[in-house]
Amino acid sequence: EAEVAQSPRYKITEKSQAVAFWCDPISGHATLYWYRQILGQGPELLVQFQDESVVDDSQLPKDRFSAERLKGVDSTLKIQPAELGDSAMYLCASSLGGGRSYEQYFGPGTRLTVT
Amino acid sequence: SQQGEEDPQALSIQEGENATMNCSYKTSINNLQWYRQNSGRGLVHLILIRSNEREKHSGRLRVTLDTSKKSSSLLITASRAADTASYFCATGDTGTASKLTFGTGTRLQVTL
Fold this sequence. Notes:
Number of helices of chain B: 0
Low-confidence stretches of chain B: none
Helix content of chain A: under 10%
Mean pLDDT of chain B: 94
Oligomer: heterodimer
Shape of chain B: globular
Structural class of chain A: mainly beta
Distance between the termini of chain A: 37 Å
């Protein structure tokens, strides 16, 4: 069964350092999402891509966060510089897109700890 | 920001019992979905109900939607220890139906 791949699974970094997360969606899925999940809360959408274009990044802290999906396939989320409050689980999800299905498939996530 | 609010926040039942979780939301929606998350892992899609539907079934799951009250419920019948997880409702925006806003979740514990 096809899965969404994410790496790394765990990342510990010091504040003010740069950190990057990678996501490979299910083949053929046009829509890709990055979420942040703080412990004990539901996921919060950071950015949504349709192919290589950003559909929504209204909740992305653009002063320190950036996301790209250059060829419309895999994607990278970067934080620079990291702050203590960025400690969370970062989840990537994908869906078919184009109104064909709204069901999202999630990867295992990257747990980030900023010290 | 969280659109949905789940109730209860935590639920503990014995195996074989039914579990009911409720979700309330604030704005008009295109669809509402339920997801399960095992501890420290990614989310798994359970079921989707569209705004023009009132009830949907999938295996041991039953979802209802009342758009007039802006609420939904998830019923898991004959629960099993493997159902122990956090359950989240997520609402699809009327403008961009694929954009989901998640609730705060219900932590379900099923004991033997």
